[in-house]
């Protein structure tokens, strides 16, 4: 595994090149919560690029081994964490399960799909961390099923303080391959954005809720 800074930069490069991440400080996106955001991230696009998909798989696998050691199960967060989780589980030779956003309304009413066991040590895989709420919901579902959740890994984080606070409150460690801070610095250095845009993007990170009122 290459060093953390190099991975952050390489993943940022990939995500910008294939437009999995779009930066539009002058024409922000609107999140479901109503927050105006200068960034849009869809890491599912990486699955269409074999070399990038492989790089992400290999480095998520290495990150899990370095940060969490031996684990017994990889669990993906539905839906975007499922394919990444399957790839990593296959790479590590581990069982896989996934956690739904809500329990099925028919059949068994399952919230977790796949076999999990009492005391099983699990790492959760997510594609993206914004506030962390959906990720922590999956962590808590696995804990309720008796699993020992070692932590969570993801491709990318927005570096929002709310996410850090939410994971701390849930007593869950998390790590990502890249993040918003690394991304905007790379984008500025390689002319994806202007210097003025960089300052706007930094202000959003510091106060997303009030950024649109700047």
Automatic annotation (TrEMBL):
Q: Write the Enzyme Commission number(s) for this entry.
A: 2.4.2.10
From the UniProt record, give the pathway where this protein acts. Answer: Pyrimidine metabolism; UMP biosynthesis via de novo pathway; UMP from orotate: step 1/2
GO MF terms held by the record: magnesium ion binding; orotate phosphoribosyltransferase activity
Q: Where does 5-phospho-alpha-D-ribose 1-diphosphate bind?
A: 100, 104, 106, 126-134
| Residues forming coiled coils | none
* Residues reported to bind orotate: 130
Matching entries from InterPro entries are given as: OPRT (IPR023031), Or_phspho_trans_dom (IPR004467), PRTase-like (IPR029057), PRTase_dom (IPR000836)
Q: Which cofactor does it need?
A: Mg(2+)
**Could you provide one GO biological process annotation from this protein's UniProt record?**
'de novo' UMP biosynthetic process
Top EC category: transferase
Q: Which keywords fit this entry according to its UniProt record? A: Glycosyltransferase, Magnesium, Pyrimidine biosynthesis, Transferase
Recorded catalytic activity of this chain's protein: orotidine 5'-phosphate + diphosphate = orotate + 5-phospho-alpha-D-ribose 1-diphosphate
Domain (Phosphoribosyltransferase): residue spans on this chain: 56-174
Q: Which HAMAP family match?
A: PyrE
Assembly, per entry: Homodimer.
Q: What does this protein do?
A: Catalyzes the transfer of a ribosyl phosphate group from 5-phosphoribose 1-diphosphate to orotate, leading to the formation of orotidine monophosphate (OMP).
Family membership? Belongs to the purine/pyrimidine phosphoribosyltransferase family. PyrE subfamily.
In its UniProt entry, what is this protein called?
A: Orotate phosphoribosyltransferase
The primary gene name is: pyrE
